[in-house]
Each structure stands twice: as structure tokens, then as C-alpha cells.
């Protein structure tokens, strides 16, 4: 095999109560990488589409490029050459794990072309290196679910300990990306560095409830647990119309609604595809009411991670 | 039915990472209440054994008495009279939920004698009132598991939302109660009121991991998640020989080990009864090495709560 086309899914990180520890993948949007072996050393980024010219073609600065580079070093094949095309099928800076999806698609494609010396899970550290380039720290809450699929818990970063949870089959995500920009670094800076013990206890209760709800298919419990007293109160200020959009989602039947990653996208979880579609529509309309355009996506929880096309 | 004998189990609250939100019940030790209807109004505490004379016989100050009183008011039978005997089969002030077990046994017995107007779960608020008398605040992390059995998550206190988790059948607790005293109020006072965001994230990861481990019978994951970076570092200072006892438990094969409630008892969880017995022995010996005597208990996770005898 000399060439491969891989699609990696977008992801919702944090998932209300699980700042830095929860994430899940959706079927779309996502990113596509076409990777082709070449006979001379070095990685060449031939083409990037869908980024409006915003992403760097320099390999060491490109999230997919750096992930492949680190991977090749690790497997002892630093001289293997590749030609890479990246097709962004999702908005940049949206809080949907755009850089993570590119890194995952890239390193997954490389591993396939090299004859799969590593397991899917073993690719995680290289995709995380791509994240470090994109947002300054090697987070795993987007890369983890994009690579592994499903709902993911990062129990620990040091050592890295990632757990995949099965999700109820009728659980659907509605994602709405408003056409506004939030800087990820601002979104992190706005967070309190010290949390009261009371809030920590509340948040832990919801973390426990969400995991239990997912594992026992208790939709009500999932809904009651989608509460964030630590991050959402701070970050929602950066998203105009946040309270109205959230209220519209709940009104339309969502189990819960919060910020996807560092925003500005919002996600909601619902029981059933029909409800999830109504929820997405209601959220878009609430943004529209103040003249903010948006893109909406409805998807089951993606269960497989990257896909060869 | 005019008289009943009820046994309610001891409990381990917090369970390492789950301060104020996790608790589980064990088969022994526990408390026994004998409750008898009488024809005249009022509750009379006839006898208390096993408390070395330390518990109040005044109904409004006794955890079982107050729980029954509040219960009778709620069901609209404030004039029903009872005679109560309380047999403490566990050490007081041990961190094993002694006051909770008494309150649970009392209110469960009263509900039986009154013809079960309330469900087992509906008895919780009255048992919590007993806790308020005993320790100044209406915690549910001992009362919840003692009343309901199993491993319990208190997702929320307001409104009260308690979830029962099934536990793996081969999961055993070793509990060692050293003959030292820790004041619960000191144990709460020593806690930091502000937690760093980093520690909160670590703790949430372990909370998520423990729930997932219990629900999927993943013993390794249970072990990796029994880590407490918030409360144990502060409270362990109040327990002489803590680090050595914990190390001895892990050395003997425990999945994890931490403080039971506010201490001084320590608990460990293990896979299998044989290991749990070795762990209890190792923990007792580690206390013994510095001349601290102790009582040890080994038990499966209790699954039923109070038991009519």
C-alpha cells in the first residue's frame, strides 16, 4: 500500500462537568488526510483545503505533520518520506478538536502505510504532540476520542491512562458552531486557578453521575449530571447568547447542553435522533435571533475513531 | 408487629477520591436497634450497650432517637410511642459511620413497625437528620450506603440525588480501626477550602475511573483510581503510621488503601477474600509495629443495607 485516505472525527471535549478529562467523538464533521509514500526522505505538505489559507504548510508547525514526524522517529524510520494532503471538513478554532482530528488522521494513515507496527492506542502520544504544536499543551481530551472513538475518560495524564466507555445506542449529539471566534488561550486564561472545596464536590458528583449514566444507559441521570459549576460559568461569558441557546436546547428536549471544548461551539446530548435534530434547530435559531449565523451537526456518538475511505 | 430487631451496616465514606460523594456498606461491623411499640406517646431510650456510656439517652440528642422523631412527624404520627434499645457493635468515632448506622437502624425499624408507609430510599432524609445531630451537618455518604447497601454516589445534595452502583462480586474490603482518636471536626477543619484546578482535574479523573471500574468489574482500574490528592494528604497527618499501614496494604496485594471517612480507620479494597484477609493482617501488623492496637474486619461490599434479625 503506497497511498491512503483517512477520515478522523471531530470531538467534544470537557462534556460539561469533565474539564480536561472527558471527550467524545461524533461522526461528522471531521478531517481527511491523504498520505502517499515517497521515495526520498522528508514530509511534504502538498495541499491543505478548507482552512481558508490559515494553516501552516511547514511540517514542524503543522499538527498532522509533527504527529507523523514524531511517529516515524519513534518507530525508527525517520527517513521514510511522505506526501500529505489535508482536507479540513470542519471549522477551525471552533472548539470541535480540529487540530486533534488532523493529527489523528495523519498518524493513523502513517501507521497503516508502515504496516501497523503500533496499535491504535499506541498512536496517542504522537497525536498529542500535534496538539502541543496547535495549542501549546499536549491535551488528550480531543485526541483521545478522535483516535479511539466513543466516550473517553482521561483518568490520568501522568502516566497517561485513557479509558473508553460504551455509550447508550440512542444517545445523539447536537453541535452548533456560531460564526464568532474565541481564542483558546483566552478561554484558558479566564478560568479560576483555585476552586472552592464545595464546587469541587459538586463537580465530582456530576462526573460520577455522568459515567454511571453512560454505563447504565440511564438517560435521566446523564441529563442531571451534565452540569458544570467550574468552567462554564467563566467561559460562557465569551459566547454571546450562551444562556439563550442553552435554554432553547433544554426547551427542545435536550438532556443537557454546554460548551464544546473551549468554545465557541455548543453541544447538547439528547435521547433519539429526532429530538437531537429539533435541539440543533432550536440552538441555531437562538443564535440567529441576534444575527449570529451558525453551522449545525447532528450525530450519534462515533464508536470507531478514524476511518479508511 | 409490635417489636423488631434491625441491624444496620457500618460504612466507608469518601473511598479515597470521592470526598463527600462516595460511600459503601460492609457486612460487619454494624449497629443493632430493638424497637418496640408502646401505648403512650413519646420515645424512650431504654438501653444503650457497647458505647462505654458515651452516647446520650436523651432522644433529641441521640442519632437514632432524632431520626425516628423526624420520621414520625413526617408521616403524621407524632404521638406514636416507642421503646428503643441500641446495641453498638462497632467502635465510636472510628470513621466507620457509627452514628449513621444507628440512625438507619432506628428509622428502618420504625418504618417496619408502622407498616412501611415509606420506601427504603424515602427514609434517607430522616436518617440524615440523625447525622446532623451527631456531627453538625446532614451528610449522606454514610447514611446513604448504610440505608441502601452497595456502593453509593451522592451526585447532588440539593436536590438530594443518590445513585446505587452495583459492585464486582469478588470485591472485598479490609477495614482496620486503630485504637487512637480523631475528632471529626478537626478532621474537617484541616482540609483546604480552596483546591487548585490541577488537583481538581486529577481527582475528577479518579472519580470517573473508580465508577467505570466498579461498573465494568475492572479491578485494575479500581486500584489505579483509588487515589486522593485532596483530602488524604491533609488528614493522613492525624493518623500515626498512616504511610506505613498503607504501604503494607498495597504490599499485601490490596488494589488501594485510604482513610475511611474522617478516620482514624483505614480501609483497603482487594480482589478476593483471601487477599483481603492478608491485607487486613498486614495493616494491623503495621500499626502494631509502633504499639498501636487495632481491630480488623474483612467483608464483601454489603448489598442490602439494614437487615431484620
Automatic annotation (TrEMBL), chains A, B:
ATP-binding keyword on record: yes
Listed InterPro entries: GHMP_kinase_C_dom (IPR013750), GHMP_kinase_C_sf (IPR036554), GHMP_kinase_N_dom (IPR006204), GHMP_knse_ATP-bd_CS (IPR006203), Homoserine_kinase (IPR000870), Ribosomal_Su5_D2-typ_SF (IPR020568), Ribsml_uS5_D2-typ_fold_subgr (IPR014721)
Catalytic activity: L-homoserine + ATP = O-phospho-L-homoserine + ADP + H(+)
Residue ranges constituting the GHMP kinase N-terminal domain according to the UniProt record: 68-150
Keyword set, alphabetical order: Amino-acid biosynthesis, ATP-binding, Cytoplasm, Kinase, Nucleotide-binding, Threonine biosynthesis, Transferase
Cell compartments where the protein resides: Cytoplasm
Pathway entry: Amino-acid biosynthesis; L-threonine biosynthesis; L-threonine from L-aspartate: step 4/5
EC number: 2.7.1.39
Enzyme class: transferase
Domain GHMP kinase C-terminal: 211-288
Pfam family, one: GHMP_kinases_N
Main subcellular location of this protein, as a coarse class: cytoplasm
Binding site for ATP: 91-101
GO molecular function: homoserine kinase activity
Described function: Catalyzes the ATP-dependent phosphorylation of L-homoserine to L-homoserine phosphate.
Entry similarity comment: Belongs to the GHMP kinase family. Homoserine kinase subfamily.
NCBIfam families: PRK01212.1-4 (NF002288), thrB (TIGR00191)
HAMAP family xrefs: Homoser_kinase
Protein name (database record): Homoserine kinase
